Every structure is written in structure tokens, then in C-alpha cells.
Amino acid sequence: MLQQSLQRPRPDLAGLERRVGEALAAPRTLTPQVLQHLLAHHEVRGSDVVPWLKENLAGLESYEHDLLLSPLFTPSLEARRSLEDVLGEGWLDAADLEAMVQDLERRALRVTLLHESYRVEAPLPPVLIERYVRLLHLDSDLPLEVLEPFRPIAPEVRCQLRDRAWARPQARRLLPVLFDAARSAGPDFAGNVRFLTDFVRSHRPASREECVRFLKNLAQAYEDDLESHRSGTRPFFDQELRGAYSGKWKVAAETVAEHERAIATARALLAALGGAA
Asked: Domain map of the chain by residue range?
């Protein structure tokens, strides 16, 4: 078996830091979640939001910056995926990651917040730089020898594998089995891996048998939800999204489509694992 230390390519650290710095400095629109925090914790609303931010943002304590702005500095899957062309099949050592955080803090980056037609600028707090960089999972190693039979590894798949869900020893042991299932379950290998990443994070299976049992339960739960919706017992409603997608809405029809896709994927994975589909 080849050693990871021999296979592992080294990322372009300067290029990676430049891309992360650009992402950190990009303007961010205040979300309903941030506005709700201002109202609940600072009693600020409406036309007072922009003047309050201009007067107080730079002087907040680190923990206050984190509580207020963390929703805006939680990288989305798309943001993480955009760095894969620089990372390739490599990752950062702990020392490289720490050096990147320190370099970014020394660059005097600024945060630009957008609200209605206004812009508010202030120094980017170090706590948010560190938060954003840590959540990019740039130091998550890839089990390259395990992945050898599945090459070429698409950027979308590498991005999913950097998720902390796959760092658990049980998940690492199951990875070849689950990737075989993902490859056999249909043409959308990256989509199947994305489904399995959420599955492994939520259900934490420790064996193939547990994967089969948990996938059966998951598919049944989705089917029960759909039946309740269609019968009117417990219908889906339009809902406002949270987190990185605050301010956007998901209509009930989208929830139905997501459930149907999840059922199909779970059933296909079950068949590939040798469980009853």
C-alpha cells in the first residue's frame, strides 16, 4: 500500500491564502437572522440598524462579533467547493493553517455589510477570520490509498470528504464500502456521496449492518412524511431558510421533491449494500 505522505500533493499556499482573503473581504448582505439578533440583543431595528452598526460595530467584543456576524462567515458548500481547484488532493498541516490565519489577520482586511441601499465598513474582526478559515476544513486529510480505486476524484467529492463526518474512525473504515455503494447506486456519484456525508454525520453508523438498518429507517421516515403531507395530516408549508441561505424561501413543492429524491437515493444505496430496496 502506498503511503499517504508519498502520494499527497502540496497545495499552492499563497494562491489558497489569496482566494480565502478575497472570500473574506467580499461584501455580505445582512440576513434576517442577523437583523433578529440586533433586535433581540441590542434592541436595534428598522432605520436604526445602519447608524448603530456604523457607530458600534468596530468596538464590539470578540464574542459579540461572533454572535452577531457568524451566520455571514459560515462558508457554504459552494464556497468550500470553489477552493478545490487550488487544494487538489492535498491539505494543510496544522502549522500551515495557523500561519494562514495569522497572515490574514495581519492584512488589515475589512468587512463590508450591505443593508437596503447602505454599506457599512469596519475592520474584519480576527474571530471571524479564524472562524471562516477553520470551517473551510482546509486541514482535513483525504484517505488517498482508500480512494485509489475510485479515481479520478471529482472536486465535489473531495469537498464532501473533507467534512468532519468522515474523520471518525468508524466512518473511515466504512468509506470503501459506502463509496462502492455510491458508485453502484446510479450515475450521480457526487450526489450519492453528498447524501452519504449527511447520512454519516447524522446517523454515525459503525458497521455495514447499521448502514443498512439506518438507511431503511431513513427511507421509511421520508415516505411517512410524504404520506402525511399528501393526506393533509401534516402538510409541508413554505418556509424561510436559515444559516447561509437566510432570506430565501423554500416552497412546499421543493420539500416534496427533496423527499422523493432522498427516498430514491436511500433505496438505491440499500440495493447496492445488499439490503432490500
From this structure: 4-135, 163-273
Residue 99's Cβ-count burial label (10 Å; 0-12, 13-18, 19+) is middle
Reference 16, options 124, 98, 100, 89; nearest CA is 100
Asked if omega into 152 is within 30° of 0 (cis), the reply is yes
Neighbours of 26 (CB within 10 A): 10
Work out the pLDDT band at 277, boundaries 50, 70, 90.
low
How many C-beta atoms surround the C-beta of residue 225 within 10 A? 17
Give tens-digit pLDDT for 255-264: 889 999 999 9
Task: Please name the amino acid found at residue 175.
Answer: L
How far CA 210 is from CA of 32, 148, 183, 216, 259, in Å, comes to 39, 25, 19, 10, 22
Q: String of b and e for 56-81 (b: at least 16 CB within 10 Å)?
A: ebeebeeebbbebbbbbbebeeebbe
Element of type H or E holding 10: none
One-letter amino acid identity for 73? F
Angle between helices 208-231 and 169-184 (to 10 degrees): 60
Q: Could you tell me the end-to-end alpha-carbon distance of the chain, in angstroms, rounded to an integer?
A: 35
Nearest to 277 by CA among 216, 197, 226, 225: 216
Q: What is the pLDDT of residues 108-128, one digit of tens each?
A: 999 999 999 999 999 999 999
Considering only CA atoms, which of 163, 208, 195 is closest in space to residue 262? Answer: 195
Find out whether 72 and 20 touch, Cβ atoms under 8 Å: no
The dihedral region occupied by 207, where left means phi > 0, alpha psi between -120 and 50, and beta the remainder, is beta
- Residue 172 and residue 224: Cα distance in Å, rounded? 31
Q: What is the pLDDT of residues 6-27, one digit of tens each?
A: 467 889 999 999 999 999 999 9
